[in-house]
Amino acid sequence: MKFETKAILIGQAADTATGATIVPIYQTSTFTQQEVNKNKGYEYSRVSNPTRTALDTCIASLEEGKYGLTFSSGLAAEHAILSMLRPGDHVIVPEDMYGGTYRLIKLILEPYNILFSFTDFTDLDCIQKAFIPATKMVWIETPTNPVLKIFDIKAITDLCHEKNAISVVDNTFASPFFQKPLLLGADIVVHSTTKYINGHSDIIGGAVVLNDTGYYEKIQLTQKSVGATPSPFDSWLTLRGLRTLALRMRQHEQNAFQVALFLEKQKTVEKVFFPGLETHPGHEIAKKQMTGYGGIVSFRIKGGMQEANNFFKKLKVFQLADSLGGVESLANYSYTMTHEAFPVELRKKIGVTDNLIRLSVGIEHFDDLLADLDYALKEIN
Ligand SMILES: Cc1ncc(COP(=O)(O)O)c(C=O)c1O
Q: Which residue ranges have their beta carbon within 6 Å of ligand 1?
C-alpha cells in the first residue's frame, strides 16, 4: 500500500462498536472491565486509549516501523528514549540540534551523570573519534533546526552498527513523507508531531517509531510510568492532520523552493539555507536520503537584530512565532527564540547568528508569500 493510502486507512478501520467511519474520540480515562483480569484490551488511558492506538499504528506504518508510541510532546518522546540510558552511559550528539533537546541534555540528563559529546556530524571522522567504550547511543537530527544541515543517516547508522550503539533520528523536519530513517538503518525515529505530522499548529505532541521489541518495551514502560501521553482529543486531531500529510508536504516543499529561489536574488539577503539548492553543502546527501527537501528555509539578512526585527514587524502573511510545520507560514528568530538555551558562543559556532531568520513556509499561495517577503525585505533599514 502506498503512503497516501496508508495515511488514510492504517489503524483506522470502522469502529467495531458503532460502525463509525472515522476513529472516535474515546474521551475516557478508564474502561469498564467484564470481570477481574478480563477486559476489551484497554484499562486506563495513561497506559493506552483506542484513539491513541489508531494514531500510534498509523505513524508506525508511515515510518515503516513495527511499533509506534505517541507522547504529549516531542520532548517527552525524546526523554522516554533517553531514559533507556544509565549513569555513566555516553551519547554522541550533533553540535547542531533543536534548542529544547540541548536543554534536556544539559539541564536534565547531564546532572544524572549521563555523558554527552557534541561533535560535527557533517564529518564522519569526528563521529568515529567521539566513540568511547561507554558509548550507547548516537543522536541524529537531520535536517537540523534551524540551519538545515544534512547528516548522512546511512553512513552514521552503519558506524553505530559496527560499534553496537543505538541510533536515533529526529525526523521532525523531513516528516516520514520525505525521509524514512528506519529504512536507512536507524534503530529509533522520534518526532515532534506538533510540526508536520499534525500540521495545523493546534496540538503539542511527539512520537517514537522503532522495530526492536526490547527498546519498545523500555520506552513504553517510561511512557506508562511517567505519563507523558497525548489526550484522546489531541490524538484525534493529530490523526486527522496526518491523513493529509502527503498533500501538505508536497505543497510546503513547492512553496519553500519558490521562497528559497526568491531570497537568493535579494540584495538585503546575505545567505540562504535550503537543502534543495544545489549550492547547499548537504544537497547531494539530501538527494540520496530524502524524497523531498521539506518546507523550511532559513536565511541571513544583511544586518543584525535590528534589521531582523524590522523585517518581522513588516510581515503580514508570515507570522513571528515559535514552531513550524503548520499550514500557515511562520517566521522565527532562532537566536533568542528556539535556541536561547545554547550559550552565545555555541550559537555563533553552529551559525545561529543574530541575523538568522527561519521561515516555516506554509501552503498559502506562493504569490502572497513572495509579495510579503518582498515588502518586508525592502523595509529593513
Ligand atoms: C527538531 C525538533 N525536535 C523536537 C522538538 C520538540 O518538540 P515539542 O515542542 O513537540 O516538544 C522540536 C520543537 O520545535 C523540534 O524542532
A: 73-75, 98, 100-101, 141, 145, 170, 172-173, 192, 194, 204, 206
* Long-range contacts of 373-376, Cβ-Cβ distance < 8 Å, separation of 24 or more: 373/259, 373/262, 373/263, 373/315, 373/318, 374/262, 374/266, 375/314, 375/316, 376/311, 376/312, 376/314, 376/315, 376/318
Instruction: Please give the helix or strand (H or E) that residue 246 lies within, else none.
Output: helix 245-264
Q: Would you call 195 a catalytic residue per the annotation?
A: yes
Nearest by Cα to 192 from 48, 296, 314: 296
pLDDT in tens, 77-98: 999 999 999 999 999 999 989 9
Determine the Cα–Cα distance for residues 26 and 308; give it in Å rounded to an integer.
45
Instruction: Give me ligand 1 centre to Cα 140, in Å.
Output: 13
What is the DSSP pairing of strand 319-320 with strand 330-332? parallel
| 69 vs 59: CA distance, rounded Å | 9
CA distances from 231 to 43, 58, 152, 203, 225 (A): 15, 17, 35, 10, 16
Tens digit of pLDDT for each residue in 334-370? 999 988 888 899 899 999 999 999 999 999 999 999 9
Q: Would you give the DSSP letter of residue 45?
A: T
Return the H-helix or E-strand segment holding 297.
strand 296-301
CA-proximal residue: ligand 1, atom 12 (nearest): 192
Edge-to-edge strands of the sheet including 296-301? 269-273, 296-301, 356-360, 330-332, 319-320
| pTM exceeds 0.70 for this model | yes
